[in-house]
Fold:
Amino acid sequence: MSGSGVQFSFNVLTINTHKGFTAFNRRFILPELREAVRTVGADIVCLQEVMGAHEAHSLHIENWPDTSHYEFLADTMWSDFAYGRNAVYPQGHHGNAVLSRYPIEHYENRDVSVGASEKRGVLYCRIVPPMLSHPIHVMCVHLGLREAHRQAQLAMLADWVNALPDAEPVVIAGDFNDWRQTANHPLKARAGLDEIFTRAHGRPARTFPVQFPLLRLDRIYVKNANASTPTTLALRHWRHLSDHAPLSAEIHL
Structure:
């Protein structure tokens, strides 16, 4: 509940941006992606595979922004943003980002990589809407491709959630790569997290590949919060903008 006792709601959007390129990296479409994201009117946006910097692309690709991709996407609509660098290579780096209309009081990027095969991180933001008497805890997630790695990462995620203050709202959104459908149970059993599409429709949303979604890879989990109108934005306007369908929902505290 908010400080005044009035119910508070906000919209969350999550999308894997595929580093700003269409499938198979055929075309750079970040400006079009920004326009599409803006039309949703989300208050908090969780982005995966967002480019922090790339020296070669900035020289050769038309429309490459002068700022980082997350700053370019935030532009004038989201006053606060945070970035967590996960994958680093000679030309640059990419990771997760959160855009917020409300102040981000604190953020940290926690390395959840398992072994040396692939770098993965969870970007945590403590967001403080002025009209609330407590923060919203937001985590932007991109988990590994191997089942054993994901199980270890889910355990880390549950432990982190359990370390947060009791009764404060938690939202976890992103690309869980959970094509085998094994994430819901441990997150619910260990940390009391509910997946909002599962709560509404019995199972997570189909999000990948966006042209003909078969796999239920992307999720929005909540704790100490309710959700309404969970929506898969696999509209024709989105289909060339990412290989994942974006998800959005209204979160109620």
About this structure: The radius of gyration is 17 Å. Residues 209 and 241 are 12 Å apart (CA to CA). The longest strand covers residues 44-54. The chain has one domain: 9-252.
